[in-house]
Each structure stands twice: as structure tokens, then as C-alpha cells.
Fold this protein.
Amino acid sequence: MRKEQRAFVVDVVGQWLTSGQSPRDAMAARAEIRRLPAASRAEVARVAAQVIAQQRWLSFARNEAVLQSPSPRVAAERLLEAHHQLAGDAAALADARARCAAIADPIVRLATRRSLPDWLAGEFVACHGDGADGLLQALGEPAARTVRANLLRVPSREHLAARLVALGIETEPGRHAPWALHVRGEQDLFDTAAYRDGAFEQQDEASQLAALVAAPPPGGRVLDLCAGSGGKTLALAAMLANKGQVLATDVSERRLDALRTRLARAGADNVQVRALSGTDLPREVAAFAARADRILVDAPCSGTGSWRRRPEARWAVDPAGLAALQATQDGLLDAAAACLRPGARLVYATCSVLRGENEARIEALRRRSPELELVRVAEVLGGSCAAPIADPTGTFLQLRPDRHGCDGFFAAILRRPRPRGLRETPDVGR
Ligand SMILES: C[S@@+](CC[C@H](N)C(=O)[O-])C[C@H]1O[C@@H](n2cnc3c(N)ncnc32)[C@H](O)[C@@H]1O
């Protein structure tokens, strides 16, 4: 790594240590980094992300409390030094591994080796048992670069792939989502006419699959309650082929502004956007929800499944924060369930791999609203399509980077049954 790139990594990591700013935001804020050639910029991003994610492991390898260095800048320099040393010096790596293997407490050992807080390592083991280590290892790897072909602008993902190849950008189709292309290499995707024309959006395959399982019926109405900057909103708008209606709501005006820009680029004109001030739904949103075919709750969560993309997230949550997130998740689920009309579906999604934010929230909802029925992912996607991406019973969407190559993700689908005697209309969603 060149001296200039090292200085940028120190800058970005130092900024995270000082203010908690994400490496993505820190890089976007620095014109001199934005001006780097795409491959150099990608290397700065990759190394900064690894240093932030592996902060605990790197401090352990140096055998010192690096975060107590005289300044964030010095701490960042020391962490980067350790990163390079472990990458290039097999003896140093073997020494750190041997010292780690000698830690008696298995949770502290796992937390040190995979670089996360002890309490969170305990949660991973409680949820994933022996699979926790492999999952944590995969969550520490760089994320795939994946785009979603926007079928409002291109006829198919094959057309998009051909258009990208003509720009020198090689891709391969995603394994599970029908619109996904994984991008090879480091070329700048956003400085292309294809991006400016809205031919694709950057979106992890897991997030695309969450939209897929929402499966709005043709011409249907969808409330996307936690739309954020609209990753799933845009996919839903395209699934509806610009027909029907999507109402995208969120408490963050900033994210909704980003969504408006993306909607215009994507050519989606079946989406309305509305800011919320909390979990209580304004009258017109509740009225839309009561007529909706789908209500998507893509809930705020710990983000444990998306650590490859957001390395700072592993240090941002604590037990009280996790409990607060679960309370918000319950509040959003109750608000959505209260509006759900008979025959309509509530789709709950998180990018968490923790049971407490996933299955446990659905179990709690069903204790509060026992009339809601679970709809199996296998029923929505078909058994053979669902089998590789669902839990063993085919009920929930359950994705992990070590098994599926995408972010960790969870989705559950619930339906309010129609009153007895009313005929079920076949659901042709997809
Ligand atoms: C996981 S993110 C959504 C990501 C988005 N759906 C996408 O696909 O890009 C969760 C969102 O929930 C929003 N949020 C938090 N509390 C909320 C609430 N009470 N009502 C609606 N949205 C809320 C956050 O602002 C955040 O944008």
C-alpha cells in the first residue's frame, strides 16, 4: 500500500475513533480521496474497513491497549501497523493465534479472535452454537459488490450485464435473486452512463431477496413502512412494473430525500413518499395501510448481518441498545399488524443474524396477535426456489454470508386470515 493511501486509511480510522463516523461517510467527505483512481480508493476502503472491524484483534496482536494511545491518530497508526504486520509476518500471526488459543474462557477467546465485544460473542454463540465462528469469520470478509438490474430501465439482467461488459465491467449472475449481478473488479460503477440512466442500483443480494419474498400482487398496493433511502422500495416499484402503488415512509427525512433522488433516476413513478414522526401512523398512512396488500417492516436493527458493509456497526450496539431496538421492532410490528386487512400480508425483515431480533420478535407478535398466520417462504417462492435460502422448515428467509455469500438477513411473512366463509382469492404475487 502506498504512503498516500496509508495516510488516508489513518485519517478515516482516526475519524471513526474520534466521532464514530463510518468509513464510507468519512471517505465521501474527503475530496482528495474521492479523486483517487477507483482501484486505489477501493483499497483504502477495504483496509480501513478491516482495521475498524478487527480493532480488538489487532490490539491483542500488538499486546497493548491501542485505544488508549495518546490520540486517535496514533491509535489508528498503531492499528494499521498491526494490520500490515499480521498480513506480512507469519511468525507474528502464529504468535497472536497461539496466545488467543490459550484464553480459557471460550466466549472471550471467540470475541478476541473474531474481534467483537464479549457480550455480543455470547449472543452469537447462543443463537448459532458451533456455527458462530464460521459466521463471524464470514462477517469479517469484504462484501461482494452486487447490483440489481432495474427492469424499469433495462429488459433483463442479461441486457444490463452486456451493457456493463461494453464499459469494461465484468459481472456474474447472483445465485438466488433473479435481478442480481455480482461485479468483478474495482471499477467505479457510479461514474457510468448506465448508473446515471438508472439501469441498476447497488444492492446486496440479501436485500433483493427480502423484496422478492414481499411478492406484491400485480397492480397491488404496498406500504414500505421503514423505507429509508429505498433499497427495497425501488425493487418493489420495479416488481410492480410501475403499476399499483407504493407508499414509502420513514422517520428520517435525510434518507427519504435520497430515496426521492433514486426514484427519479430509476424511473419509478408508482411511489409516494411520506415522512413519519414515530411509530404512531398518521391518519392517511393508516388508511393506506388498511387497504394495502403488503406491509413491509424492514425494521431498524443491530445490523449484525451487514458488518461486511458497515464494519463500525459491531462496535455501535450495546445490550441496552439491543433491547431498545427490540422494543422499536415490536412497536413497528404492532402498528403494522393493527392496520393489516384480512388476506393481506405483513413482511418483517432485518439485516440481523440474532434470534432476539428475528424469530423471537415474530413469536412475541404472534402471542400478542394470535390470529396472524405464518406464510412460509416456500409457499411464496415455491419449494425448490426457497429451499436454499429458507430455514430448514421453509418458513423464514434466513441468509448468512458463510452459506449464501450475501449479507445476513431474516424475513418472516404473516397473513391476517379472511373471515371464515369468505373465499380466498388466489395470490399471484411474484
Ligand atoms: C433497515 S433500515 C431500512 C432500509 C431500507 N428499507 C432499504 O431497503 O434501504 C431501517 C429504517 O427504519 C427507520 N425507522 C426507525 N424507526 C422508525 C419508525 N418508528 N417508523 C418508521 N421508520 C423507522 C430508520 O430511519 C431506517 O431508515
